[in-house]
Write a structure and sequence with these properties.
The chain has 63 residues and is mainly β. Helix content is 0%, strand content 38%. It has one domain: SH3 type barrels, CATH 2.30.30.140.
Length: 63
């Protein structure tokens, strides 16, 4: 994904699992993700994150 597509709080998926974006570094093109099933934070390059439109809260519709 492009670094400009991220927002603080959005749910994303990468090889390390599913997490919530807590910080965006546009200079390095990375995001800090807080893992949902743990308290670990990790830095992930934006190009390693897959776009998952089904990963969002507050919607009961499955695409």
């Amino acid at each position: 994904m492009n670094v400009n597509e991220f927002e603080i709080g959005m749910l994303v998926e990468c090889q390390k699992g599913v997490g919530r974006v807590t910080k965006i570094n546009t200079g390095d093109k990375t995001v800090v993700i807080n893992q949902l099933d743990g308290d670990a934070d990790f830095v992930v390059p934006c190009d390693e994150i897959q776009h998952q439109p089904q990963l969002h809260e507050g919607c009961e519709t499955y695409y």
